[in-house]
Amino acid sequence: MDKIVATTKGAFGGALAVLWTTGAAFADQPRPWEWRFQDAATGIAEQIHWFERYTLWFIIPITLLVLFLLIWVALRFRASANPEPSKTSHNTAIEVIWTIGPVIILLFLAVPSFQLLTAQYSPEDPTLTVKATGYQWYWGYEYQVDNPVSFDALLLKDADRAAAGKEDRARYPRLLAVDNEVVVPIGETVRLLVTAADVIHSWTIPAFGVKMDAVPGRINEAWFKADKEGLYYGQCSELCGKDHGFMPIAVRVVSKEQYQTWLAAAGSDLNGANKALQAAVEGGANDKVAAAGL
Predict the structure, then answer these.
(1) Peptide bond into 72 cis (omega under 30)
(2) In a domain, 14, yes or no
(3) In this structure, are residues 274 and 181 in contact, taking their beta carbons and an 8 Å threshold?
(4) CB-CB contact of 178 with 161 (8 Å)
(5) Of 120, 141, 168, which residue is a domain's last?
(6) What CATH code is carried by the domain that includes residue 281?
(7) Spatial CB neighbours of 245, under 8 Å, sequence gap ≥ 6
(8) Pairing verdict, β 138-143 and 149-153
(9) pTM of the prediction?
């Protein structure tokens, strides 16, 4: 009996370890039935998440108060309980409260909101500039470096997964994976120049806290500084035609050494550079899983 219990405990513990390690390995990925924000991968995203939690301390009590008042008024002042309607036209105390109260609440919301906006529009000096151009229905990227690198990023079709070495749907989800990811180094400020060639698009990565419209004839600017390695996904967030839902965005954050190696090779052989980087990154991830005894 003791042996059965010990075996059961070991199996249960192993299952938990698998779930924990798998979750950690793909913490940068969207998850099924996820109803909260994705894990933040930048300081700005962390601030956005904090501000959302902060506003809930105001939203929830106000919602409950309004609900209580609606129920109380409906019951207290119903026709059967008040055959003679009240003739009260105003109440100075109540009017002062409902005027000053919201002003105070808005001040508590405005101050951290302005601080967040200031942070979003006050980037550090960028070490890398990437231009993203929206097309119907894919993205084009240009690295503004000494040896320019440019490529298009299209939705990865199921028929092309094997050739691309991206058959793992947990790491490369359907309708989110692309043939060529944007590659950036961890801990470096990336300036993003966003425009479009045809209609309005929107470049969005939720984990970075970045959402910037791509407008034809205009260049908008955004920035991010990823502090976690991983493969991060987003989608065009502006209705842009029939294939709007098939225009994903993928950014791979890697070590500075891996980025430099990729950049040196990508100018002459993008496909080879991508596959070499993919093998290095996924090999490291598999080593971590193996080290956990899975």
Answers:
(1) no
(2) no
(3) yes
(4) no
(5) 120
(6) 2.60.40.420
(7) 175, 235
(8) antiparallel
(9) 0.80
